[in-house]
Design goal:
The complex is a heterotrimer of chains A (about 140), B (about 150) and C (about 400).
Chain A (H helix, E strand, L loop, with lengths): L4 H6 L3 E7 L5 H8 L12 E3 L8 E5 L4 H13 L5 E5 L1 H5 L21 E3 L6 H15 L1
Parallel strand pairs in A: 1-2, 1-3, 3-4, 4-5
Chain B lengths: L1 H10 L3 E8 L2 E6 L4 H11 L3 E10 L2 E10 L4 E9 L5 E3 L9 H11 L2 E3 L30
Parallel strand pairs in B: 2-5, 6-7
Antiparallel strand pairs in B: 1-2, 3-4, 4-5
Chain C lengths: L2 E6 L11 E7 L2 E8 L7 H5 L4 H9 L8 H14 L5 H30 L2 H22 L8 E2 L2 E2 L5 H27 L1 H7 L7 H7 L4 H4 L7 H4 L20 H26 L16 E9 L2 E9 L7 E5 L1 H5 L3 H4 L5 H10 L13 E3 L4 E4 L1 H18 L6
Antiparallel strand pairs in C: 1-2, 2-3, 4-5, 6-7, 7-8, 9-10
Helix pairs in contact in C: 2-3, 4-5, 4-11, 4-14, 5-6, 6-11, 7-15, 14-15
The chains are: A alpha/beta (about 140), B alpha/beta (about 150), C alpha+beta (about 400).
Chain lengths: ~140, ~150, ~400
């Protein structure tokens, strides 16, 4: 039995799916760092899931290269609604230093709607947690 | 210099020009038809390691630099060839060096250079839907339509 | 025998990473592999031509998050080669310190990921926990946990204060003890030995054919290391040794990386001793870059990072060619996975330590006749973890 998003958020258990659309991986490593004992994001009730069909939140990093633009559109369609998109890092927010590249299809909000922007290169885990907490407040 | 002497000894006047930027950087300019002989000698006889190849668009020609490292002597030998920019093609060295396959594919898609005899010359990095005939690394390719 | 195509999925345990390997399988065994790249291609070489020489260092730092300082060092070496200048001694020590700290955090990251693929999740958590103090040092010295912006043409951007030196030495001293424990655990574990020895072997001929570099080459007995072969920064001013193994399998690659961590700590501590209590210039001023060409390389955690630059005397590079180590290491997968089983494929690929951003990556499995996905990356990781559990049981160990 699926709980709706608001109820789940109130019970503090968000399922998060991560996708990199062409990044230097620093943001991705810092996201993974959030799971490690020092930051331990699981105490906020967030879990990383393996399939977009179970996700409430889509975390996106990277500039969105042309090859990835098809994938991200498909994944967004498959995500059960209501779902939220969080753009992490300067590349996902605006394209960053790569915005004039010839492989650039992004930034992310050109392709799918974004709810929360967490800038930084890379954003520190503390910044990411702060961003996610803002998202939780938005859901409520 | 040992390596320079060996090259001169083996190839004599097939070498159009040798430049020593310093004792660790040797640039050898040759004609494109001699590329296979030079690569075989440097890769096998000098036991050098193939690093990569740099393709450059000089508006009046296409240039390729093949970089090899002779690790034990701390020398990088770069072979330079110039190609006709209107029809840039050269023999593929993939038969001699298996690892050269990817960089030749990359130069093919980003600069439009054809590598004759390459086992599988097709795009490596660019998306299939990226327009044909558009070579991003060429100097004339300034603004690209998205 | 039916031939099955196995595109291999995400490399990273919990992420959808964009990269694509198609493996052709005959039953359980792999017969061929093809690499489909391009998901991470950001057109950096072209972007480089539109930036000033000094701005390029910031751009290429972002080629890869994990080897973030390797590319700037190689690029600065290339431009300094073009200019035929040598940087001040203090700058040399600082470059080596930052480079080696990066090597430490990169190898620990790899140990964690490899642990996860094999089903040793505690190893994953420990390795990443021990990484944190190194990132703290980075933040203290450079201002950022990653993307340090330390390198510039002619030297380094920031100095290391005397007060910080003692703090760094303490942190490294503690880390050394934990590393010793981790290394001993890996070397002594019979399950890991059964799981990794003889798996994904690369011969000396494979290494030469592909031009593979770094720990991948050194694990197969090829004694190459840019730090020793082509000394720059402080590598010929301090004592350290190059680690090699002969077997060429994934176990050898793990051993090489773990033992390299100790050499890195040795280098950093010697460099810090030479800096303490002394003052000196940290850069040579470079006003403009004349016409010419330069080549620079550096031993990144994954292998040789190579940069070629050409100048026509103006403020931007005419051409900037970048070759990351994973570009030559990942194709060795074609040789090392042939004849291996699908369950071993993730750990063989992990053994190469592919830096996806430096190059690109990914895998999943399709049945070529039914055109239906059989496995994806997470399934392959699960298969790999199951194989470890089976071996543990056979050897009489309890599951973690």
């Amino acid at each position: 039995m699926a709980l709706d998003l608001k109820t789940r958020a109130l019970k503090k258990s968000l399922f998060v799916f991560h996708l990199s659309t062409g990044s230097c991986n620093n943001c991705d490593i810092e996201i993974l760092d959030c799971l490690t004992p020092r930051f331990d994001i699981e105490r906020f009730g967030m879990t990383l899931v393996g399939s977009i069909k179970h996700a409430d939140v889509l975390l996106v990093t990277g500039i969105c290269t042309i090859k990835n633009s098809y994938r991200i559109k498909k994944l967004y369609e498959q995500m059960p609604k209501p779902g939220f998109v969080v753009a992490i890092g300067a590349c996902a927010c605006t394209g960053g230093i790569f915005k004039d590249g010839y492989q650039m299809a992004g930034p992310i909000d050109k392709i799918i709607p974004v709810d929360v922007y967490i800038p930084g290169c890379p954003p520190k885990p503390e910044a990411m947690i702060a961003g996610i907490v803002k998202l939780l407040e938005k859901i409520k | 210099m040992n390596i320079v002497e060996k090259l001169k000894g083996k190839f004599g006047n097939k070498i159009k020009d040798i430049k020593l930027h310093c004792d660790k950087r040797i640039y050898v300019e040759i004609e494109k038809q001699d590329i296979i002989d030079f690569v075989k000698f440097i890769f096998h006889d000098l036991d050098a390691r193939f690093i990569t190849a740099s393709g450059i668009d000089n508006l009046d020609s296409m240039e390729i630099l093949y970089h090899f490292s002779v690790d034990r002597e701390d020398v990088i030998v770069s072979i330079r060839v110039f190609l006709d920019r209107n029809n840039p093609e050269i023999d593929s060295i993939t038969k001699i060096i298996r690892g050269a396959s990817n960089i030749e594919r990359e130069m093919y898609e980003l600069l439009g250079i054809k590598f004759l005899g390459h086992p599988d010359l097709k795009r490596l990095l660019l998306d299939d839907k990226f327009p044909e005939g558009v070579y991003p690394l060429r100097k004339t390719q300034e603004k690209l339509e998205k | 025998m039916k031939k099955v195509i196995v595109p291999l999925g995400p490399y990273h345990p919990l992420f959808e990473e964009p990269e694509y390997f198609a493996l052709y399988c005959d039953g359980e065994n792999v017969v061929d592999a093809e690499w489909v790249a391009g998901y991470n291609h950001r057109g950096i070489e072209k972007l480089s031509e539109s930036k000033h020489w000094d701005q390029v260092t910031f751009l290429i730092e972002r080629i890869c998050g994990i080897c973030s300082t390797s590319h700037p060092i190689a690029y600065c070496n290339a431009v300094e080669d073009l200019l035929k200048i040598e940087i001040p001694e203090r700058a040399k020590y600082i470059r080596s310190i930052v480079g080696e700290l990066e090597r430490l955090h990169s190898h620990l990251l790899w140990v964690g990921l490899a642990g996860h693929f094999l089903g040793y999740n505690t190893v994953f958590m420990w390795a990443w926990k021990y990484r944190e103090p190194i990132l703290d040092i980075m933040e203290m010295v450079t201002g950022n946990r990653n993307h340090y912006a330390m390198m510039k043409i002619g030297g380094v951007r920031r100095d290391i204060a005397d007060d910080d030196i003692d703090i760094i030495k303490n942190i490294l001293g503690e880390l050394k003890g934990k590393l010793e424990m981790l290394t001993q655990a890996v070397l002594d574990d019979p399950v890991l030995a059964a799981r990794l020895k003889g798996v994904g072997v690369l011969t000396k001929k494979d290494i030469k054919d592909f031009g593979a570099v770094g720990p991948v080459a050194r694990a197969s007995g090829i004694d190459i290391d840019v730090r020793r072969d082509s000394p720059h920064a402080a590598y010929n001013l301090v004592e350290w040794k190059v680690i090699t193994c002969e077997e060429g399998d994934v176990f050898a690659k793990a051993v090489v990386r773990l033992l390299e961590c100790f050499e890195s700590i040795k280098i950093i501590q010697q460099c810090l001793d030479r800096l303490k209590g002394k003052k000196g210039e940290i850069e040579i001023e470079v006003r403009n870059i004349p016409a010419g060409e330069g080549i620079g390389h550096y031993e990144a955690p994954r292998g040789e990072c190579f940069h070629y630059v050409r100048s026509d005397g103006t403020s931007r590079p005419v051409r900037h060619k970048i070759r990351a180590p994973s570009y030559v290491n990942i194709p060795t997968f074609k040789a090392s996975c042939i004849g291996q089983t699908i369950a071993d494929v993730t750990i063989i690929l992990a053994g190469v330590d592919p830096c996806y951003c430096c190059t690109e990556r990914a895998i999943s499995v399709y049945d070529v006749d039914k055109k239906k996905k059989i496995f994806d990356g997470k399934d392959l990781i699960r298969l790999s973890q199951e194989k470890t559990r089976k071996i543990k049981k056979e050897l009489g160990f309890k599951d973690e």
